Amino acid sequence: MREAESAELKEKVAEIWWFHSIDLGQGVITPGVDNSPKKLKRVQLPPSLDGKTVLDVGAWDGFFSFEAERRGAKRVLATDSVIWNGLHDTASKRGFEFARRTLGSRVEDMHIDVLDLSPERIGMFDVVFFLGVLYHMKYPLLALEKVASVTKELLILETAVDMLWTRRPAMSYYEKDELGNDPSNWCGPNPAAVLAMLRTAGFRRIEVVAGLRSVFFRIARAAYYKIKRGYPFFAAVRTDRIVVHAWK
Ligand SMILES: C[S@@+](CC[C@H](N)C(=O)[O-])C[C@H]1O[C@@H](n2cnc3c(N)ncnc32)[C@H](O)[C@@H]1O
């Protein structure tokens, strides 16, 4: 009986294009292109979110929303626009909805653009996740101000960074698909620019919890991406990703 249920679950999972790798139980993990458990370690969510309200901005399949619920959050709101609005060739909201049903989750959802976030529209949340979204923003500082406006305590930000050769705040602007061959990427701030924008947006204590990897690591990774995916080698060496925790 169990084997039949697990086989049926696997079949349904296979009908969906997944971004996140979500453990649905019964030995089934969604075949996401994203190594979500690895990202989870780097992002360093608080071990307990007991009694907290959590907002997950740009939630996609909802891996981090479900994780917040698992860590005891009393309310989780997952929001997205591009993917959930069907503006992508293959990806959609189907993964989020399927995972929520299968996990028996009470995570709420709302289709809303980052630039439309405000306390009036969605209220305020103790903890806000802004993971993998900043570099998709045409107006990054405005986006951070909108995110700050709905954050009560802690913002957890994960982002791609560029312009790593300068310590002064600086930002790349991607007119086409210069970052990762993806035309939905618009900006690559360097770490100093991320921190400066967070201060401008009203955060008082800011900590980089996962910083730049060594240049040797970045060269090896760039060579791998060049061979595997055809990404431009030097562009990949000069970019990385960081995780920042910022408190109001
Ligand atoms: C790279 S994915 C990150 C998914 C997830 N947060 C993670 O870190 O694994 C970027 C997500 O941001 C969403 N997104 C992009 N632009 C957005 C916007 N203007 N408003 C709301 N969501 C947006 C996309 O639809 C997508 O789900």
Care to describe what's here?
With 248 residues, the protein is an alpha/beta fold. The protein has a single domain, classed as Rossmann fold. It contains nine helices and eleven strands. A seven-stranded mixed sheet has the order 5-4-3-6-7-11-10, sandwiched between helices. The protein has a two-stranded antiparallel sheet with strand order 1-2. The longest helix has 15 residues. The mean pLDDT is 95. Bound molecules: S-adenosylmethionine. S-adenosylmethionine binds next to loops. The site of S-adenosylmethionine (SAM) has 15 residues, from loops.
Please outline the helices and strands.
Elements (H helix, E strand, L loop, with lengths): L1 H13 L8 E3 L2 E2 L6 H8 L9 E5 L5 H8 L4 E6 L13 H10 L4 E4 L7 H4 L2 E7 L8 H10 L1 E11 L9 E3 L13 E3 L1 H10 L4 E6 L4 H15 L3 H5 L2 E8 L1
Parallel strand pairs: 3-4, 3-6, 4-5, 6-7
Antiparallel strand pairs: 1-2, 7-11, 8-9, 10-11
The structure holds S-adenosylmethionine.
Keywords:
7-stranded mixed sheet, 248 residues, Rossmann fold
Number of strands: 11
> Which CATH-level-2 architecture?
3-Layer(aba) Sandwich
Could you give me the name of the CATH homologous superfamily? Answer: Vaccinia Virus protein VP39
Strand order of the largest sheet: 5-4-3-6-7-11-10
Number of helices: 9
Radius of gyration: 18 Å
CATH class: Alpha Beta
Order of helices and strands: HEEHEHEHEHEHEEEHEHHE
Shape by Cα distribution: globular
How many structural domains in the coordinates? 1
